[in-house]
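Bench log, entry 3. Co-assembly request; chain sequences pasted below exactly as received.
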Amino acid sequence: MAVAPESAGSRLDALNQWVLEVARLTRPERIQWCDGSDSEFEALVERMEADGTLLPLNPDTHPRSWLHRSHPEDVARVEHLTFVCTSERDDAGPNNHWMAPADGHARMDGLFDGCMRGRTMYVIPYCMGPIDSPLSRCGVEITDSPYVVANMRIMTRMGAAALARIEREGSFVRGLHSVGELDPDRRFIMHFPEELTIKSFGSGYGGNALLGKKCHALRIASHQARTEGWLAEHMLILGLENPEGETHYIAAAFPSACGKTNLAMLIPPEGYRQDGWKVWTVGDDICWMRPGSDGRLYAINPEAGFFGVAPGTSMASNPNALASIQRDTIFTNVGLTADNQPWWEGLGVGEPAFDWRGNAYDCNAGPAAHPNSRFTVSARQCPSYSAEAENPAGVPISAIVFGGRRASLVPLVFEARDWAHGVLVGAAMGSETTAAATGAVGVMRRDPMAMKPFCGYNFADYFAHWLSFDSEGARLPKIFHVNWFRKGDDGKFLWPGFGDNLRVLEWMIKRVEGRAGAVDTPIGALPRVEDVNLDGVPLTAEARDKLFGFDRQAWLAELDGIGSYLDEYGPRMPAALRSEQQRIAVALARTTA
Ligand code: SAT
Ligand code: MN
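Structure output for the full assembly:
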């Protein structure tokens, strides 16, 4: 069917015309409009089981769950092949690879030419965010990958309701995707923010291929958000309910594979549970926020599912995630046990018989699961999923948290003194790289607000946009920085992390309520050891010093590094951030501590 069902003469004309144009270019054997129904999903799965794209897992332990093994060279995002194509190079900024839009289209259309011959072209209308929320935005992904369709069905509100909203609004983000030949030398992920268009070729992997996720909900949405006065961020959203039954919502930005899913689904330590503390999961990866009429920031999770990192997920680290993925889950690139259960390093039970490539497991031949292996699962299957996640109005945010992997320098937690300082703290974020993207792992790089791979425009303009929220009548969240990954001299982590991170969240919320102490320092307000509830957490003297103190000399050097980083953006960098950096550098130089 070449046109949308029941759409003659409607506001879907633009969509129908685009679908026809794409079909003329890519030459599919057939076109299938996806309605998101169960029967459609069943038929897709049947086809993928038949051709080996999906391997059914043990139906007793993991009903309606599958393993997908990707091409071994297509296992992560490819930042060096990801482009932002704006008419002016400076609008993409030094933080993006750039190509002129005409060149980008020509390059991509050359790759797409005839690429779907003999294949089905799927048209996927989807809505990012609750279907009736004014904060939500729609898109349509065209793809030749049934694996992408199945994942998009879990990760977004896909199908008939989204198509109806697109018909009502008349606007949508266009995403064109083909796996091509999965050739790393013929692979590009291109964004045309001015045209709200994405073109992705040559990869079937998550962030490169599920275009609603990073391509739309971050790169294109960040651009849309700037023009429309909101924020599209790489943040989890959680609700923290205290024993009095009050819930505060926290949005937290961490780079990929730094524990966002674990934090979003945190189970409080035993004592806290007994006292009545609860954590509610709204989202684990992406947050769209905008000011409400009361001046507070209201947030939605644009996604409907989790595309989580499997390795390390266990009953100890994340029981909620583990409970979520016992059924109706697609696993990608994990290992297998002899009785066909999914297996990964850190799972804690069972043992692998096959590795992620499908070879008999050999402990000398690397891990059983790829370090960036993933599960795709509906958020509704998560025991801690918040009912407020479906609220069209979003949830009011009380605190924003920035955090990276920093083995040294950065204390467990500190609070920015005001919004402008908080924006600098986010802009200066650094983190060691992970397996979520191809390239070296463990290299420290600046990753402002965890958006380095995802901001669809010049970071200098992005920071200015952030600063602009501090306006008359705004009641902005407090901003904090955390570091769960500080290491001691022996190279081991100093902080237990996971459930115990709640202790830090509690301190933050008490700061928001004016009920917790801190010491003002040049880098921000630091809790004293006694300000955080550490009952049952034995910390060595070294851990206390490093987690709750700061090294003035080392921070002076860090501030220098931050200054040079800001300078890389030239005159577009807002002066307010430079003066924040100066203010802190001067205060550090004057401190004798
Ligand atoms: O691979 S994704 O981009 O979808 C996930 C991530 O890297 O955060
Ligand atoms: Mn992410």
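Residues 398 and 513 are 10 Å apart (CA to CA). The chain has three domains: 10-229, 233-305+386-549, 334-369.
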